[in-house]
Amino acid sequence: MKLHEYQAKQVFADAGIPTPASQLASDVDGVVAAAEEIGYPVAVKAQVQVGGRGKAGGIKLVEDEEEARDAADSILGMDLKGYHVDRVLVEEAVDFTNELYVGITMDRGEGKPVAMVSTRGGVNIEEVAEEDPDAIAREHIDPSFGMHPYQARKAVYDAGVDRSVARDVSNVLMTLYDLWESRDGADAEINPLMVTSDDEVIAADAVMNIDEDALFRQPELAEMEEEAAGGDELEQKADEYGFDYVRLSGNVGIIGNGAGLVMTTLDLVDHYGGEPANFLDVGGGAKAARIANALDMVFSDDNVESVVFNIFGGITRGDEVAKGINEALEQFDEIPKPVVVRLAGTNWEEGMEILNEDLVTVEQTLEDAVQRAVEYAEEVEA
Amino acid sequence: MSVLVDDDTRVVVQGITGGEGKFHAEQMMEYGTNVVAGAVPGKGGQEAAGVPVYDTVHEAVEEENADTSVIFVPPAFAGDAIFESLDSGLDLAVAITEGIPTQDMARVNKRLSETDTRLIGPNCPGLITPGEAKLGILPGNIFAEGNVGLVSRSGTLTYQVVDSLTNRGIGQTTAIGIGGDPIIGTDFVDALELFENDDETDAIVMCGEIGGEDEEEAAAYIDEHVDTPVAGFIAGRTAPPGKRMGHAGAIVSGSGTGTAESKINALNDAGVPVGDTPEEVADHIEEFLD
């Protein structure tokens, strides 16, 4: 779960990380009022969950009311890489002399958190990592002790941060780690961390991704998630249902259990000349209602021309899956799109007895099921 | 021969009074696994799935000589349950639970390095030695006794590939689902080492997926240390790049790794053929065994 910039900044500011004065606004007058209170110049920043907002016209620096109105007009309501912009952050424009990068994430290879600092902030840090990995100082943290102050200092000095601000940057990094740890962060980043001519450091952007699996113990952040919801309608629906779902551009809807098997099903659709419309993993142990929800999801995508249901039960049971498929399909007078079902594994025989075969096409193997679904989709296209 | 599990393995099921714990404890026993106890805080003295339940894993070790745990504890408490297994001196802990917070697993990972217990998982289907014992949720009926070792990051993909093998009459020594989470116990390299040293294992299947660099590391290990022929499969060739990939996560190691392409290339360079479909993986194994 990714917080919006304004939410992450609030979390950071509450913890004591300096951030520019800012206000959220959702209409033109609100933008102007906020700008006047903060004082020009201000930045008007679209609050959507995509990278590269600046280049896409989602961030504008304005000097006066007229420019503020123009910027608000052009940004509010715009479509930014598929996301509708309905809120902007109006923020004090900071006069900086330097831009740094600081971040905390989990290094899965090491199985440990890692703190990162670079003097090449304000740019695409992924490109820096690729072109010049040594430009980013890294310090691994023992998760049972947390970050020691010396480690923060070491990362800061290793990165070559100017001595005049090293102490402040170390403090920001320590605070960022504490937040990352206490809020179950997946990533916490500031890029850029601006350095002003007075040697102050200010977080000009804020990124906070929360570990979805830990939201149960982060009730405040879970509330923010509801506020943060936005973007693709189907992906929102998937969030409500609690599915791992990714919308794609093809026409063969795909439902399966387990990320690896669902990805394999996608790969096979591609292998047999079709195009996947989505990735949908119902997860482990799905009961009938969840299976019915999954079908509802995929039917809601207008691009879908056929559906392949690939279940290989372990903890998931074939009888529950069959019940769910019946439940979802029996409510239609006419099935909207052909559904191909392949059931294997735990209780698959019980499932096959329950499954209403008037409503679906049954195939025994993954390969046959995928080919049949691709054929159905092609028939519609033809 | 087999690796890690056989019919002498003495299993304590953590969470045996829960729905999944009870169902799969029974399934394991039906398969022939020697389940000797359950462990559920507050439920000590009861019986579940026909075995005694203890409040702690320590008691199950003392009273029933349990040496292995299988963990069906909800995610909020599963990290603690794994710690309990590690601190009880078990040989092996198998964590089935999906959705354990990553920071909990980072702490588990630290403790793991300080103990002699081997951890499989979490978020995995477990492991099985066909005809002897299964630990976890794998559907026993699709497996067959034989000479192919299998290691996989994805549970359901394991079943798919095993199904292809068994349908051709190719059985397995042991199949290990290591789990797809960012932080896991036993990884590809550990499993490959076990199979390489197992006299009964004549070929190995390794199923990976996009994300992380474990497959690239495994490829390097195979190149150096593995003489047993290995066939691979990588799921996620068509997965859209960038989705669910954390920004900071991608810069830890630079980029260019973690994609299906980089994994397939690394495996090919190590002499491992990678199938386009699960059936093609079985084709390769068939050729190795001929």
- The share of residues in helices of chain A is 25-40%
Radius of gyration of chain B: 19 Å
Question: What is the end-to-end distance of chain B?
Answer: 21 Å
Q: What overall form of chain B do the CA principal axes indicate?
A: globular
Nearest-integer average pLDDT of chain B:
92
What characterizes the major β-sheet of chain B?
7 strands, mixed
Q: Measured on Cα atoms, how large is the radius of gyration of chain A?
A: 25 Å
Please provide the count of β strands of chain B: 13
- Name the pair of protein chains with the most residues at their interface, and give those residue counts: A-B, 67 and 65 residues
* SSE series of chain B: EHEEEHEHEHEEEEHEHEHEHHH
Strand content range of chain A: 15-25%
The coarse silhouette of chain A is: elongated
Poorly predicted regions of chain A are none
What assembly state would you assign to the polypeptide chains in this entry?
A: heterodimer
Q: Which structural category do the helix and sheet elements of chain B fall into?
A: alpha/beta
Strand content of chain B: 15-25%
Number of helices of chain B: 10
Structural class of chain A comes to alpha+beta
Low-confidence stretches of chain B: 244-251
What's the mean pLDDT score of chain A?
A: 92
Summarize, please.
The complex is a heterodimer of chains A (about 375) and B (about 290). With about 375 residues, chain A is of the alpha+beta class.
Please tell me about this protein's structure.
Chain A: Its cofactor is Mg(2+). Chain A: It comes from Halosolutus amylolyticus. The complex is a heterodimer of chains A (382) and B (290). Chain A has 13 helices and 18 strands. Chain A has 382 residues and is of the alpha+beta class. In chain A, the strands form five sheets. In chain A, strands 7, 8, 9, 10, 11 and 12 form a six-stranded antiparallel β-sheet that branches. In chain A, strand 16 (306-313), helix 11 (318-330) and strand 17 form a beta-alpha-beta unit. In chain A, helix 5 crosses helix 6 and helix 8 packs antiparallel against helix 10. Chain A is elongated. The relative contact order of chain A is 0.10. The mean pLDDT of chain A is 92. In chain B, the strands form two sheets. Chain B has a seven-stranded mixed β-sheet with strand order 3-4-2-1-5-6-7, with helices on both faces. In chain B, strands 9-8-11-10-12-13 form a six-stranded mixed β-sheet, with helices on both faces. The interface between A and B is large, with 67 and 65 residues.
